[in-house]
Specification:
Length: 268
């Protein structure tokens, strides 16, 4: 069932969350990779998901994208329950894993046609939308070249183009800046902001705290499978009386490790 809009104090209605996790857990036998996690992401937001290695970020992202099934809890994407309607929910998601696979012996056009076929897109629709995306990502002039000739940054932009090809409502990204030079990273970050500004949402897992501070409207900090803090960057800075997100992140995770030595959980 879709989540209804929420009235706010001004009498207008706040749009319902475009991503909603309610008491989501993931266990592997006796090991608790993710403790009950609840959070909402609204249309127009870039949400940063932060945490050290082993915190459970990738586990969460794989459940959001439908790759893993939650042990308990519910996930909605744009009002669609991913367990009750997995095919429909996936149509609303663009997913970029931390190690995306590209077919080096295909051209960019052939790769986009392959991805479009997965989503049941007509060839003419792939060409029209693909041309727009390739132009925006500075790839159109080389779209007939084999992917194996592309630089790392070009491959990242092609992956982003493919993820946006079917105009998803939600873009889920795991570690997008790995291996990018500063110029390439700046372009990718600008594209994330553009996606959110179109009334969609970006759920971004990253180790780059500078990226999170620069791009994200809100962030959540995951530690040993538990969400230990969330809010805007300004709210977290004010809460801890610190100057940047790196200091906040280090302070919160060190406090949690010290105060809760018995915590277990987190997978990736």
């Amino acid at each position: 069932m879709a989540t209804p809009p929420t009235p706010n104090t001004s009498g207008t209605q706040t749009p319902p969350p475009i991503i909603r996790l309610q008491s989501v857990e993931k266990r592997y036998g006796k090991f608790q990779a993710l403790h009950p996690l609840s959070l909402d992401v609204r249309p127009g937001e870039v949400f940063g998901f932060l945490g050290p290695n082993g915190a459970g970020k990738t586990t969460t992202i794989r459940m959001l994208s439908g790759v893993l099934t939650p042990t308990a809890g519910a996930i909605e994407i744009d009002g669609v329950d991913i367990l009750a309607n997995p095919v429909e929910s996936r149509r609303r998601i663009g997913y970029i894993p931390d190690r995306p696979y590209l077919y080096d012996k295909l051209t960019a056009w052939e790769f986009l046609e392959f991805v479009g076929g997965i989503y049941g897109m007509e060839k003419a629709a792939v060409r029209g939308r693909g041309q727009q995306l390739l132009r925006e990502h500075s790839l159109l002039e080389r779209a007939d070249e084999l992917v194996e000739a592309y630089s790392h940054g070009m491959k990242q932009r092609l992956v982003l183009s493919a993820a946006l090809l079917h105009s998803p409502r939600v873009l889920i990204v795991d570690e997008p800046m790995v291996g990018l030079d500063p110029h390439g990273a700046r372009k990718i970050k600008a594209h994330f902001r553009e996606v959110a500004d179109q009334g969609r949402a970006v759920f971004l897992s990253t180790h780059s705290l500078d990226t999170a501070q620069e791009v994200c409207d809100r962030v959540g900090i995951l530690f040993r499978g538990r969400l230990v803090a969330q809010g805007t960057v300004a709210e977290l800075l004010q809460m801890k009386g610190l100057k940047d997100l790196e200091e906040v992140f280090m302070t919160i995770t060190e406090e949690e490790a010290r105060n809760n030595p018995g915590f277990s959980g987190g997978e990736a």
